Structures are given as structure tokens and as C-alpha cells.
């Protein structure tokens, strides 16, 4: 169908026709004289944030679900492996504009305070100002990336289910009709599935409860006491902001792991290896970021420690109408902290509900993976899941998935491995 002989991105002669804002996407991007080529040092062009590629063929070799870092890295890899844009692969994105989860970050999160945003393959991210809001800079970069490499992203399209067809293909059901494909890459991330744990009395609380997905500014909490629940990077960063305008209490399920020095490549490999082992066994993957610990050298953590903001309490036993409470134990008396707001910085779960009809989960509720491939159905890849949940991990995993799909979808390869 759309699997062409392998070629470089800059010299591909695209035969599938795809139209975006009246332009014929079967032609390579040009600057008026010669094609714009991939590679370091190529500055992204300024483009509108709402680029939508449509219409696109409905029967393709590969459907990629999600156009965040993982999805775009995979799309680049598929094009590099010779899959035709549009007829060979398509990217379905639920967001109305480029940027993935970065479109929803709070305004005070700047490039200088966030975890590093790694370059997407083939086009470096070179922001002019580290003080720029990430909610603006990263989506602009993603938009430029999509346009620069003519990636066939169709949006907004929400995928509701993926099923096998009688002939062994996948039928991808969406709110804008169905697509069929021989291979599938799920790159939906976690942002759409915030996790809030349950505690006794939670429904009785008369104050405000919100997850980090709903956080916008510390000013909305001025004059209120905020209990922040969670032991990750987001919790410590938000505590640093909110504590400058009002009082806070930090609560974590486990004591935080403070890491001195720097998080080097050896430490990174150790963390990734732990997560890889979990997914090989079909267990739910732990968070890569969660396993790294909290770097004391990070400016906002150093500041929070110096100001005494990051003094944590163990998680409470129950929630009352006006606060949180700890029951008495043999080693501690009862305790109560009044609260106006409970901010749940308790992470996310993988957005994979649409894969349920494929019955890919293991008894432990996770996916058993070999790299990015689902064991038992190697035509399905999870990118941005488990060990590839970090931005640099997603880049590598997306390209690995593209290489594997080229092998799996070669002429004569069977279409179905799992009934």
C-alpha cells in the first residue's frame, strides 16, 4: 500500500496526496528554491498553531494515535523508513492544535523551570528565551515540526476504540469515522487520565479539590491554606509557587528521595532498566521520573528546602469537612490540619482505554512489552509508555517502533498474531 522503498526524508517523492489549508502535501516543503532539508541547525518556520491536515486516506499501513513528543517522533521515523505520508501512515490527534499536553501547562511553567524539553529528531528546539512560558514555546515548536516535515496529522480526532477486522487489520474507531491499518502505534500519553486516589470522607470536604491538570496560577489560592498531596516534581514545583502567596502543607505517601549531585547517564540507564523489567513482566510501569528522585540542585527545590516549604507529613488517614486528619497510632497522637484547598499532584495513568477491545493487558493490568512491541501482537507498539515515558525516551522509542513496523509489515508478513 504505502510502504515505499526506504529513502531519506528530504528526498522522498510522496505519491499519497494530502491537503492542508489548500496546499498539496504530495510536494516537499520548499523555501521557494530548494527543498528544506532535515538536520541540525535548521530553524523551524513560524506557522499557525492550528494546522490541520485533512482529508487523509482511510486505509493505511500504520495509524499513530497521538501527536505529542512520542507521536511526532514516531511519525518522523515512519517517514524515514519509507512509509508514504498519508497513504502509508497517518497521525490522529485529539487536540485541536499542535502541542500535546504542553498546551495545558500552567502559565508560570517556563522553559527554565521545567524538565528539559529534548529536541524532536531532525529539527532542534532552540528557544530564544528560557523565561518564555512552556505553554507557548513548546506548542509552537511542535507546530513548526509538523509543517517542516509535512507530517500527516489529522485533528481534532478522538479515538474511541481499536478492534481487529476479519482480515487481520485494525479498525480505528473515532468521532470522525473509522480508519483501517496493518499496524498501530499508541502515543496517547497520560495527560487525559489524571489520577486522584480515594480517601475516607473525601466527598464531605467543603473546600476545593483539584488535580494539577486544573492548576493555573498561585494567585487563585491567596489567603487559603493549601494541602498539596504528592511526592513528585510537580508537587515540589507547585509548592514553591503557592507558598509565596499563602500557607501550605505537603503530604506524601512515602518519604521523598532526595538526590544529591547530578542525574547522569548511568543513573538514567539504571532507572530505565527497572521500568523495562516491569513491562517485560507485564506489570504496570513505574514512573521514570518518579524513580529518579528529587534533585536537590534543582533551583526551585533548593529554594523550597531553604525556606522550609518542603517539610513533608505522611499521608493522612481521612478527609473531613474542613481539613485532613491523622488517626492516633502507638507512636503518634492524632493530628488535624485545616484546609481550604486540596491539590492532588498524584500523577496520571496511561490513556489506553481505547485498546481494550484488543485484549492486550496482562493479568497484572499492565502490557507485556518487548521494547515498544506488545508481546503476542507485535504490530501494536506503545510509545511514551513505561521506559519511553520521558521525552528523550519517547524519541528513541518512536524511531525503534518505526523500524520494527517496517519489518513486521514487509510484503508477505502475516497480518494477525493474536485472535
Any idea what the CATH superfamily of the largest domain is called? FAD/NAD(P)-binding domain
Task: Supply the CATH class of the largest domain.
Answer: Alpha Beta
CATH architectural designation of the largest domain: 3-Layer(bba) Sandwich
Distance between the termini: 24 Å
- Total strands: 21
How is the main sheet built?
Answer: 9 strands, mixed
- Class based on secondary structure composition and strand pairing: alpha/beta
Count structural domains: 2
The portion of residues forming beta strands comes to 15-25%
Radius of gyration: 23 Å
List the helices and strands and how they pair.
Blueprint: E1 19-20, E2 23-24, E3 59-65, H1 69-80, E4 89-92, H2 134-148, E5 153-154, E6 159-164, E7 170-174, E8 177-186, E9 208-211, E10 226-229, H3 233-242, E11 248-252, E12 258-259, H4 265-280, H5 288-292, E13 294-295, H6 299-306, E14 312-314, E15 318-320, E16 323-326, E17 335-338, E18 341-344, E19 369-370, E20 373-374, E21 377-382, H7 391-408
Parallel strand pairs: 3-4, 3-8, 4-5, 8-21, 9-18, 10-11, 10-18, 11-14, 12-13
Antiparallel strand pairs: 1-2, 6-7, 7-8, 15-16, 16-17, 19-20, 20-21
Helix pairs in contact: 1-7, 3-6
Amino acid at each position: 500500500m504505502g510502504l515505499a522503498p526506504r529513502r531519506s526524508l528530504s528526498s522522498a517523492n510522496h505519491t499519497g496526496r494530502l491537503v492542508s489549508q489548500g496546499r498539496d502535501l504530495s510536494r516537499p516543503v520548499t523555501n521557494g528554491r530548494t527543498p528544506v532539508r532535515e538536520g541540525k541547525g535548521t530553524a523551524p518556520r513560524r506557522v499557525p498553531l492550528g494546522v490541520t491536515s485533512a482529508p487523509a486516506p482511510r486505509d493505511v499501513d500504520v495509524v499513530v494515535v497521538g501527536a505529542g513528543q512520542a507521536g511526532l517522533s514516531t511519525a518522523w521515523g515512519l517517514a524515514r523508513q519509507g512509509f508514504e505520508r498519508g497513504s502509508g501512515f497517518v497521525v490522529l490527534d485529539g487536540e485541536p492544535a499542535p502541542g500535546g499536553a504542553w498546551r495545558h501547562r500552567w502559565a508560570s511553567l517556563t522553559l527554565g523551570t521545567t524538565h528539559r524539553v529534548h529536541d524532536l529528531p531532525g529539527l532542534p528546539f532552540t528557544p530564544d528565551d528560557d523565561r518564555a512560558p512552556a505553554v507557548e514555546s513548546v506548542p509552537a515548536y511542535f507546530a513548526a515540526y509538523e509543517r517542516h516535515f509535512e507530517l500527516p496529522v489529522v485533528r481534532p480526532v478522538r479515538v474511541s476504540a481499536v478492534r481487529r477486522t476479519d482480515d487481520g487489520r485494525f479498525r480505528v474507531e473515532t468521532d470522525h469515522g473509522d480508519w483501517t491499518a496493518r499496524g498501530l502505534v499508541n502515543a496517547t500519553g497520560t495527560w487525559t487520565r489524571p489520577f486522584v486516589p480515594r480517601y475516607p470522607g473525601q466527598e464531605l470536604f467543603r473546600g476545593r479539590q483539584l488535580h494539577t491538570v486544573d492548576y493555573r496560577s498561585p494567585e487563585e489560592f491567596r489567603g487559603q491554606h493549601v494541602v498539596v498531596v504528592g511526592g513528585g516534581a510537580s508537587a515540589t514545583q507547585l509548592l514553591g509557587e503557592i507558598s509565596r502567596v499563602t500557607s501550605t502543607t505537603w503530604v506524601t505517601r512515602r518519604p521523598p528521595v532526595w538526590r544529591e549531585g547530578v542525574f547522569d547517564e548511568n543513573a538514567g540507564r539504571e532507572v530505565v532498566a527497572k521500568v523495562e523489567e516491569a513491562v517485560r513482566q507485564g506489570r504496570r510501569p513505574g514512573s521514570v521520573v518518579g524513580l529518579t528522585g528529587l534533585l536537590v540542585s534543582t533551583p526551585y527545590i533548593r529554594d523550597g528546602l531553604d525556606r522550609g516549604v518542603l517539610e513533608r507529613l505522611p499521608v493522612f488517614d481521612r478527609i473531613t469537612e474542613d481539613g485532613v486528619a491523622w488517626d492516633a497510632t502507638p507512636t503518634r497522637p492524632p493530628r488535624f490540619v485545616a484546609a481550604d484547598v486540596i491539590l492532588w499532584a498524584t500523577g496520571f495513568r496511561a490513556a489506553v482505554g481505547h485498546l481494550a477491545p484488543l485484549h492486550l493487558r496482562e493479568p497484572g493490568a499492565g502490557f507485556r512489552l518487548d521494547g515498544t512491541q506488545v508481546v503476542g501482537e507485535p504490530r501494536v507498539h506503545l510509545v511514551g509508555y513505561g521506559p519511553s515515558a520521558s521525552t528523550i525516551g519517547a524519541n528513541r522509542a518512536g524511531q525503534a517502533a518505526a523500524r520494527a513496523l517496517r519489518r513486521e509489515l514487509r510484503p508477505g508478513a502475516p497480518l494477525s498474531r493474536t485472535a
